[in-house]
Structure formats: structure tokens, C-alpha cells
Amino acid sequence: MRVVTAAQIAELDRRATEEYGIPISRLMDAAGRRVAQAAEEILGVQGGRRILVLAGKGNNGGDGLVAARYLRAGGFDVRALLAVSQGDLQGEPARALAAAANAGVTIHSVPTPPSGEELAHEDLIIDALFGTGFHGPIRGVAAALIDSANRSAKPILAVDIPSGLDADTGRWEGSCIRAAATVTMGLPKIGLLVHPGVEMAGTIYVADIGYPAPLRDDPSIPTHMVTAEMIRALLPVRRPDTHKGTYGRVLIIAGSVGFTGAATLATLGALRAGSGLVVVGVPQSVYAIVASKVTEGMPTPLPDANGALASDAVGKIEELAAGADAIAVGPGLSGASGVLTVVEALLAGSRPLVIDADGLNVLAGRRGALERTHAMAVLTPHPGELSRLTGISAAEVQRDRLQAARSAAARFKSIVTLKGARTVVATPEGEAFIVPTGNAGMATGGMGDVLTGVTASFIGQGLQPTQAAYAGAYIHGLAADLIAHARGMVGILASEVADHLPPAIQRVQVGRHVDGVRELRD
Fold this sequence. Notes:
By secondary structure, this protein is an alpha/beta fold. It is 43% helix and 16% strand.
């Protein structure tokens, strides 16, 4: 599913009208119907008949007033509070106001905003104050309405985007609606899907308002939200006449003294994601430890120096790499000089490569090696690792994760999986994929090692590296979500996430998983 900025959705509106002859009045009517549809669904679950619409003077306010008309026709007790005088509404919003009044909606302009206690008599508040075109802080009556609505403790349904939220960044200045649900028109907005905006949006409904399919799937829109439907189309189907060689041979280079768990977890991730054969190369000094933990994988000792890979391990690794469909390198390798030699040798090869953790850290001072790579590489940094690679601060990375991932992917000619809350996968061509699965229980050691194995496994099973990157992140996050749903987020272990990969894959394959974003259609 494509995801848009404020400018992109405005362009879709323009094209819908100018190229396809769909008038703004029809788009507004469809938007209002979808909001009413969501409101009825919410009240059908929680009960209640009293609805308050907070409306501004723009098209967002018009959408809310259309919803008020439909809800009044459905028998609900509906009133609307305007943040402006009635005479400030022009064009379609003015016509929507008149139609709502004629339908029996009680209309008030707000000289003095009501208190949160007054709004507590409502069963549902619909926020139609500001839409995607708004930027900056909200002031005056509108800000007071937002603050009162938030204090009311009543569920708020936002129209298109919570008022005050920046549609492009997910940030806000001053007052911002904290919605229980948001009905967003046509396509999701980036600000609804990334932090901190996702915390204000609640359940997201994507409303079909009549955009033709060529607009909804315009290839010039480069950002996507990963969905279960997308992953279902990618996951290999297991035929009864296959064997272990059918599902790929993965080589993992990992581990050092004190970090044997990283090698074990990466191997477990690859196996649980469906790899047929996994070879794990580890320094000779930790071989016995890893061999005792990895029973289904094939541990192989490599030359080491002081408990970490030695430079002369390259020859043996290149032999192993010749028989691999995908290679993962980095988890727990340490910053030893031999590690850099190994990583640079793999970058000079032709096998698809997943680079994580110390595989990235040793390249921090040698970024040219990535820029000159012959292999198709998937880099899987967390914000600190991306900071070391790019030279920008981790805070800057977090401030605009989409742009940070895109910039790094273009610079290093690699796919970048920027891990964290709402993992982002970016390609050198500028496409980006927002992964909606995962939870705060994953903030513990070893999670990234499992993801490295999963990503390499999917490449080995035949997915393209970009597909493997976002499918791996989605399934990895879903596995953790299954655990959190069963028993909460505290105490989730990376090994448990690996063990829950098969159920996560099954849920997607059989269509039992529903994403947090829901679609509203006729």
C-alpha cells in the first residue's frame, strides 16, 4: 500500500478532478460517508448516540460536516461546533454546512470553547478542524477545542489526520488531537505511520473515496506500508516433492569470545524462517561453544586471533561462500582487524550479502568499501550503527528515519533496513517501506541477530534482497507481536521471537493476520 505526503495527496486530488472529472463535491461526500461509517462502527461496539463534530473552515471541516449529515440521517444525536464563524466557510465546506443544518444537525460557532467536562457528555467526538495541509502550531479557539477534547477522555475520531499533526513527519507543535481512530482519505499519510505520529492516530481506517486505481498505485509515490497481503504474495509455497536444497543454503559469519549467542541466534533465525541448510562460520576458539548450541545448523571453525576472526580466515570463508545462496556477516564478530578484512573480501564477491552489527561497525571508517561493492548488500543498522556509518548523529537519524534510510541506501548503493520502532527499508533507487509490526518488547539483546538470519534466509529461498529485507522485518516483528498478545511485552527473548517465526509465517500464509490499518469500502 502506497503512503503519501501532504503534497502528494493534494496532487492526487487535483488529478482526480482534472484528469478523471471527479468533482471535489463528490470526493467530500465520499469522505464524509466513510467517516460516518467508522463512527457507526465505533459506537456499535461501545454504545452511545451522542456525537460532537469539531469543524474548521477548510475541506477537512467540510468532510466532518458531511459525516454529521449522514450520522443525523442515521438517527444519531449530532451537533457541530465550528472553530470559526459560519460566514468564514466558503465553497464546498459552506455547502456542506448548509446541508448539515437542513438535515437537523445543531450548529454552533464557538465564542468560548467548552471545557473537557462539558464534552464528557458526548459519546464520540469527531475531529475535523485541520487536515493534511496544516503545518505549525495551532492557536486560539482551535487549540482550546483540541485541549478540551483531549481532556474529555471521550474517544476521538480524527478526519484524515489528527488536527495539529504534521502529515509528513508525524510531529506536532503545541496542541494536537490524540485520536482513538483516524479515517484517512485515499491513502495513508506518512505522519500517521511513523513515530511519534502513530501514537496520536489510534486505529487507522483507509477510506476509499473514489480515486481511480492508477492514482492509488501511482509509481511516482515511492513510499509503501508493508502489509500482510504483500508478504503473502512473496513467501515460498512448500511443494511436497521438495528437499532441503530447495530452500537455500545460507552462510553466517558470526561470533567471537563473549559473543557466541549472536552466532547462535542468527543461525536460529535463518532456520526458523525456513532455510534448508545453514552453515555458521565462527572463530576456532568459540567453535566448541557454538557447536554445542547449534544442532540443526552446521558450525565450521575458522582461523582466529585472540578470540576473533583472523585475516587469514578469508580463504576458508570464500570457499564456503562459493556454495551459498546468501551470506550474513557481522553478529558478535567484534571490531578486530581481521573482521574488516573478511567483510571487505565478501563485499568484493558476488553473493547477496546481509551485513549487521560489527560487520557495519568495522566499515565506519571505510565507507568507500560499501560504495564500491560488487555484491547486492542489505545493511541492517540500528540508529547508532547508521550514525557511525554516515557521520550524522543518532538523534538526526531518528528525527527523519525515512530520509536517513533513503540517503544511506543511495550513498552506499545498498538496501538499508533501519531498525527500530517502525522499521524502515530503503532502496538505492529511493523507494522506502514502512514496517508496521513489532513492539517495545523487542528492546532487548539478540533481536537484531535473529533478523539478520531471517533476512538472509529469505534471500536464500529466492526472494529479491529488497523483498527479503521488508518481508524479514515484517515477519520478525509479527513473531514478537504474537508473544506480546499472548503474555505482554515484558521479558520477550530473542530466541522466543525466533521460535515464533513459523507461527507468524503461517498466520500470513493462511490470511489470519490483519494489519493495524483497516480499509473502508462499500
